[in-house]
Amino acid sequence: MKLDHIRNFSIVAHIDHGKSTLADRILEVTETLSEREMREQVLDTMELERERGITIKAQAVRVAWHGHQLNLIDTPGHVDFTYEVSRALQACEGALLVVDAAQGIEAQTLANAYLALENGLESVPVVNKIDLPQADPEGTAAEVAELVGEDESRIVLISAKTGEGVEAVLDAVVERIPPPEGDPDAPPRALVFDSSYDQYRGVVAFVRMVDGRFSTRQRVRAMAAETRFEAEELGFFSPFRSPTETLEAGEVGYVVTGLKDVSRLRVGDTLTAEANPAAEPLPGYKDVKPTVFAGLFPTDSDDYPDLRDALEKLKLNDASLFYEPESSQALGFGFRCGFLGLLHMEIVRERLEREFDLDLLVTAPNVAYRVQTKAGEEVEVHNPADMPSEIEAVEEPYIRASTIVPKEYVGSVMELNNDRRGRFHHMEYLSEERVLLAFDLPLAEIVYDYYDQLKSRTRGYASFDYDVLGFEPGELVRVDVLLAGDPVDALSLIVHRDGAYARGRALVERLREEIPRQLFDVPVQAAIGSRVIARETIKAKRKDVLAKCYGGDITRKRKLLERQKKGKKRMKQVGAVEVPQEAFLAVLGLDGEKR
Amino acid sequence: MTDGAPGGVRHLYVHLPFCAHRCGYCDFVTVVGRRGQHAAYVDALLAELELERRLLDETVETVYLGGGTPTFTEPAALRRLLAALPAAGETTVEANPETVASDLARLLRAAGVTRVSLGAQSFQPKLLDVLERRAAPGDVRRAFYSLRDAGFDNISLDLIYGIPGQSSSDLERDLAEAIALGPEHVSAYELEAKPGTRFTHAYGDELRRQGESMEGYFELVVETLVGAGYRWYETANFCRNGRQSRHNLAYWLGRDYLGLGVGAVSTVGGVRWRNSPRLPGYLAALAAGRRPEREEEPLDTWVRRQERLILGLRLDEGVPLAAVEGAFDRDALARLEGLGLAERREEELALTARGRRLGGGVTAALMVENPAKSTI
């Protein structure tokens, strides 16, 4: 296909603004799928994605429209996956910016609009769900026009649900989004914007051909990784895999590499031909770093190998997942995992539990800290238990949080952010009713019970998004929890000095409630170093006997005691104290009420 | 299997299941009424005794008639039974107060009974009502004096605490009443919600709720009785002047015992068996000269050692280390010693007073898992 007949575009939208429905409708209108093949939201293939109504893995589908080849590159719709969005956007020349006519612009919409702008994409603003009774198409169109600096008449009003306006969207893609630029005769260069793993065919790279062409069976080289392989199959998605003989400049498609090791082909790398290599690779992507960390432990220690295998498998399809073995005195063997954000963490956890049938204990999430030790070393700490005791300075990640709320909630959000060590950045009225609030906050404050608080203080009307700003020094301390004098490594926390007392108090009180009384008094303490900041005592039991035991019931009494013994074995042992799993679960799930 | 079991058993239990009424909390094998069957039942018991006699040692140390309500048994049948049982240093009969008049007390005494265990449970009408006991408080005292008058110098009183509606001052009063009678022995049990009983159905939730206050009740029982000069020789048993229940002590010391009667349990050598709890089947089998149906449970050396540990730790005297070798965890012992819950005395293992109050948990901590089982 000639370059000027190709259009590559994404749809960016806030969750639930109808991105997937629009994608479905495009497949239908372009007759890419027969009605029989048409399933609801075909682009979201994972069960979890369907349930949550979000897309995690980007996919690329090719459709035909009035003699043009349109490649629709799907993107995830959540802040945690901004990185994946940006990868997808680099493979495009334009983006449909979809906004819900009933909801208006959301924080995510802004982030996506800016992302599209940064990537030099042509935005086609679309107001969706105009069929809803509570929709305000004109008002929303005005907001969007203001945001992207377009005339209101250029905003396409549609209902992806009924199909109204979808053809106009496709026409707008052809008319407004520029065709790809590239040299069809140059040595081939293809940008890997995503990959998936197929257990039979190995790594499948999703690529955007920039220059030249690839043919099936051609020897290919990944320029950064220096990995060489044969293009076993080339093709595009329709939305099923459709093999082709060649991929040409400007096109989007896939390359079956046969590689069995995902680490040998990184997203962002440039593929070229072995025989006819390009001189320069394409500009790649920045390497994303996980921002949120948590320990994952199997509730049954026998499941450790299964957890390891499951993480390995997830990693194949989720390059951003980071994990390393961790062992805790209290929780046994597990993994310290790094995630792009809280939602990413939730999704990984749910996939492990659902797809791999594992029961997990997840420690309280924390962020990465940069620590300067007294010895002058710089270390990055992912686990509060690893925080050195002799500290010169600690830095923690900060974010810029954008919150959009109806104006009556401005005070509530300000108060919440001030409580969370936030610094006001700016405020603007998006319309008469809706206000954008920008605050700089420590990421650690978002990780702990922020979303629920924001939701309840704004009655669910707030929309929230953030960008990571960088590291800043903070007055941070490590709070340890001790049971009968022994530290419980899995419960250590790093918190701001001002919040340490309250968090320590809450933890200690909760533990006292959750840990059953033992054969001896158990002091429960929260401490900063050797200084105890909160203390409770679990009083010893005073009676634990089987009332009577005579010749007729010795067997039954023996079995009762054997059962009691077995019950003890299921407990986690912290020093001399037996702690039921449920106590850890309850404490790790400590909610905001106790704050 | 019992054919090959060794003889030498010195402890005999005889079960008499008949009761005038089945109390709501009871889960023993009991049969209400059936006066017409008492004689036939005694025939069956004696037939069973003949079938098992060779298991017994020439010297039988203790005989224990339990129930049911042994003293509810028709007097002629009871007399015939007692006459036929081997003579023993201690022969105990369980009795309900309302069944003990001076005639019966004299009958028992004349038949060679040396000890009576009187199921008083409480001295307060409202609590006896809750338990569905038929005796009135006056009956307990009357029965006690009848026994004393008949010459019994070894009487035990059973008390129950944790009865729904029982305040701690109610318990104090019950203890004071019991002590005032001056029995040689007191058994004090916490009321248990045994699965499947009417009582559990009616009061189960209440018993669960009061679990924590029972700690104080148990302490009150131990402190009061010890204060009155009783020796707290077993978790739930107290005695004066060395008058332990020698029969029950045999269980706690892991000795062999033979049980006769419907639902009775025996432990001889490496086997424990339990007779069928069904009365018609029991009577029919023995009428035909056969043993009743039994459930058997083999007990290997390891299990017997474990039981020796479990039972022995209920006593104030220690368990010889050699008798429980391999059945307890030495590290756990060291830990429990550190906590002041257990102690090693010479070549013995024992719990401290505080350890005994926590005997269940402490024992579970000391136990090791059966090595034979864990290899399966």
Quick gist of this model?
The complex is a heterodimer of chains A (595) and B (376). Chain A has 14 helices and 34 strands. Chain A is of the alpha+beta class and 595 residues long.
Beta-strand percent range of chain A: 25-35%
> CATH fold name of the largest domain in chain B, please?
pyruvate-formate lyase- activating enzyme
Biggest sheet overview of chain A: 8 strands, antiparallel
Oligomer: heterodimer
* Helix vs. strand class of chain A: alpha+beta
Low-pLDDT ranges of chain A: 52-58, 591-595
Relative helix content of chain B: 25-40%
The CATH topology assignment of the largest domain in chain A is: Rossmann fold
- Under CATH at level 1, the class of the largest domain in chain A stands as Alpha Beta
| Chain pair with largest interface | A-B, 26 and 48 residues
Content of β-strand of chain B: 15-25%
Low-confidence stretches of chain B: 1-5
Secondary-structure topology with pairs:
The complex is a heterodimer of chains A (595) and B (376).
Chain A: E1 6-13, H1 19-29, H2 47-52, E2 60-65, E3 68-73, H3 82-90, E4 94-100, H4 107-118, E5 122-128, H5 137-148, E6 156-157, H6 166-176, E7 189-198, E8 202-211, E9 213-215, E10 219-222, E11 227-230, E12 233-237, E13 241-244, E14 246-248, E15 252-256, E16 270-273, E17 292-298, H7 304-317, E18 322-328, E19 332-339, H8 342-355, E20 360-362, E21 366-367, E22 369-373, E23 378-381, E24 391-406, H9 410-419, E25 423-429, E26 434-442, H10 443-447, H11 450-457, E27 463-473, E28 476-483, E29 486-487, E30 493-496, H12 497-514, E31 522-528, E32 531-538, H13 554-570, E33 572-574, E34 577-579, H14 581-588
Helix pairs in contact in A: 12-14
Chain B: E1 11-16, E2 18-19, E3 31-32, H1 38-52, E4 60-67, H2 75-84, E5 88-95, H3 102-110, E6 115-121, H4 125-130, H5 137-149, E7 155-161, H6 168-181, E8 185-190, H7 198-209, H8 213-227, E9 231-234, E10 237-239, H9 246-252, E11 258-260, E12 265-268, E13 271-275, H10 279-287, E14 294-298, H11 301-312, E15 319-320, H12 330-338, E16 342-345, E17 348-351, H13 353-357, H14 359-366, H15 371-374
Parallel strand pairs in B: 1-4, 1-11, 2-3, 4-5, 5-6, 6-7, 7-8
Antiparallel strand pairs in B: 8-10, 9-10, 12-13, 13-14, 15-17, 16-17
